[in-house]
TrEMBL record:
4-aspartylphosphate carried by residues: 37
Xref: InterPro entries: Bact_Sigma-Reg, CheY-like_superfamily, PPM-type-like_dom_sf, PPM-type_phosphatase-like_dom, Sig_transdc_resp-reg_receiver
A GO molecular function held by the record: phosphatase activity
Domain of life: Bacteria
Taxonomic lineage: Bacteria, Pseudomonadati, Pseudomonadota, Alphaproteobacteria, Rhodobacterales
Protein's UniProt name: Fused response regulator/phosphatase
GO biological process: phosphorelay signal transduction system
Keywords: Coiled coil, Hydrolase, Phosphoprotein
Residues annotated as domain Response regulatory: 1-104
Coiled-coil stretches: 110-144
């Protein structure tokens, strides 16, 4: 009788005489709805329900137990076995149809949910592929950006220059470097472009091209009858400020310290444009900040940049660090600051060159507990006391493109 009612209601019906036979039917046909007696040959309805829930199938199956049991403990037992609904005997046709319609609604909802999840998974797979491709591109971009700093150190007569550049992510906005002006002078720069993404990296690449070792490309150099001349540090900052305001349509700006170093006299002329204060450490160990700050480049049409002069005597050194170092924070939000960098310099006074820069980078990492949110970069200028052979500029100085001899 129940089978006839179901067929008249438009359902395709498959009957089974026992629990084991019903389980075989479920394995073979994966029915959408199962109506099972509580008591039947071979196994009980709850036992069949447990086995049914353990089957591997594509969609959800709605399970209704037919029973004359009305005790709360029996209902709980059936629900724990995995039943979705119950029909109490004797079965009413109206109640049967209502229970089946409820099952149909749940199955349709489950099917839509499954389709949505499948579409979501496809979208997620596409996004993962796109992310993997982007990561590959960014890794290559990082290699290219690291290549902008072709030489991490250079020796000019009695001076040694060492560079540190470590982006926070794949690509960053920091740039450090140096280039020879002539046999007796070099230009040295430390730049920090706002932001850390592609926009910052593109501007960094452009600035690197403008400060290359080639006289034809380097905007800090100009050809003269007597050889190569350099524009003043202040004029260079003003040039970059005009370029950024007139040629770019973004809110990007950058900070900079640029210095013109004379190897014979130790005289250094520089400009500070919103960059952290350079720190000069004398041979005695005394440390003092240099400059008054100045405005970042690309913010105002007529900014005030700070010019400074100093002399580096034998045993002295100058550290120019980006705000990724000076503004590093510990887990409590405390800034490392200029004083923290000074303490690092005092504590590692016996180290020089890259040994000192690596030690400073390690100290910053310890201070932040390894959480680095910004690029870190630095330039270390040291007035060393080598012998005459080491001081020969033809042996130790870079060529016109900034390459060191073997």
């Amino acid at each position: 009788m129940l089978s006839i009612q179901l067929q008249r209601a438009g359902y395709q019906v498959i009957e089974a005489e026992s629990g084991p036979e019903a389980l075989q039917v479920c394995r073979r046909y994966e029915p959408d709805i199962v109506l099972s007696d509580w008591i039947m040959p071979g196994m009980t309805g709850p036992e069949l329900c447990r086995e049914f829930r353990g089957l591997s199938r594509e969609g959800y199956g709605y399970f209704i137990l037919l029973t004359s049991k009305t005790e709360a403990s029996d209902i709980a037992y059936g629900l724990e076995a995995g039943a979705d609904d119950f029909l109490t005997k004797p079965i009413s046709g109206a109640e049967l149809r209502a229970r089946l319609r409820a099952g149909d609604r749940i199955l349709r909802f489950e099917e839509k949910l499954r389709a949505s999840n499948a579409q979501l998974q496809k979208t997620l797979d596409r996004l993962n592929l796109a992310q993997e491709a982007m990561d590959r591109d960014l890794r290559e971009a990082r290699k290219l950006q690291q290549g902008l700093v072709r030489e991490r150190s250079g020796r000019f007569q009695h001076f040694e220059l060492s560079l540190l550049l470590r982006p926070a992510g794949h690509i960053g906005g920091d740039l450090v470097g140096f280039f020879p002006i002539n046999q007796d002078r070099a230009g040295i720069f430390s730049i920090d472009v706002s932001g850390h993404g592609v926009t910052a990296a593109l501007l960094t690449a452009r600035l690197a091209a403008h400060l290359s070792g080639s006289t034809e490309q380097n905007v800090a150099l100009r050809a003269a009858q007597a050889g190569t001349e350099a524009v003043s540090p202040l004029a260079l900052a003003q040039f970059f400020n005009t370029m950024l305001l007139e040629e770019t349509q973004t809110d990007t700006y950058f900070t900079m310290v640029y210095a013109d170093l004379d190897f014979h006299s130790g005289e250094l002329r520089g400009v500070q444009a919103g960059h952290p204060h350079p720190l000069v450490q004398r041979r005695t160990g005394e440390i003092e900040p240099v400059g008054d700050g100045g405005m970042p480049i690309g913010v105002l049409a007529r900014p005030r940049f700070d010019e400074f002069r100093l002399r580096l005597n034998p045993g002295d050194r100058l550290l120019i660090a980006s705000d990724g170092i000076t503004e590093a924070t510990d887990p409590d939000g405390n800034l490392l600051g200029d004083e923290g960098v000074m303490n690092i310099a005092r504590g590692h006074r016996g180290l020089s060159g890259h040994n000192f820069l690596d030690a400073m980078s390690f100290c910053v990492s310890q201070f932040t507990h390894g959480e680095r949110r910004d690029d870190i970069s630095a330039v270390l200028i040291e007035h060393r006391e080598w012998g005459d052979r080491d001081a020969d500029p033809l042996r130790s100085g870079p060529d016109r493109r900034g390459n060191l001899p073997p």
